[in-house]
Amino acid sequence: MGIINEFKQFAVKGNVVDLAVGIIIGGAFSTIVKSLVNDVIMPPIGWLTGGVDFSSLYINLQDITGAEAAYASLDAAREAGAPVIAYGLFINNIISFVIVAWAVFLLVKGMNSLQKKAEDEKAAAPVEPPKDVVLLTEIRDLLKAQGEAPIPSPS
């Protein structure tokens, strides 16, 4: 039963919940980034390059071997089972990765900045002495105020 209890402690600590939230948000963010790349960034790049749609760029390996196989699109080549290198999709995925990496960098940079700010505020705050030290200090001050002589040490 030891491993079950360990798993319960692990799951209850919040690590699993944090991981699940991260995965869900990451999936949603991935969808947004994919749309940004495919629907916003790549069309102007395609327009600038003369109407090239990067997602449809590919190399048909059958053409290299001299076989008679010309396909109208990447999808048609894949449906026919032709071996292809879809380098246009690879370019889109590289752009998506760079966008995600940049967003994560900004997120981590912001979190580090907030953490540093909190640490600086904590360091700048005066440190309160423990309660027993405060109590002893008050007792000492009261004794001084009453003019009591120090207790002689036994000789």
Task: Tell me the layout of helices and strands.
Elements lengths: L1 H11 L2 H34 L10 E2 H4 L9 H6 L4 E2 L1 H38 L6 H16 L9
Antiparallel strand pairs: 1-2
Helix pairs in contact: 2-5
Report what the structure shows.
There is one protein chain. The chain has 155 residues and is mainly alpha-helical. It has a single domain, classed as Non-ribosomal Peptide Synthetase Peptidyl Carrier Protein, Chain A (Orthogonal Bundle), CATH 1.10.1200. 70% of the residues lie in helices and 3% in strands. The chain has helices at 2-12, 15-48, 61-64, 74-79, 87-124, 131-146; strands spanning 59-60, 84-85. Strands 1-2 form a two-stranded antiparallel ribbon. Helix 2 crosses helix 5. It is elongated and about 110 Å long. Belongs to the MscL family. It comes from Parvularcula bermudensis (strain ATCC BAA-594 / HTCC2503 / KCTC 12087). Keywords: Cell inner membrane, Cell membrane, Ion channel, Ion transport, Membrane, Transmembrane, Transmembrane helix, Transport.
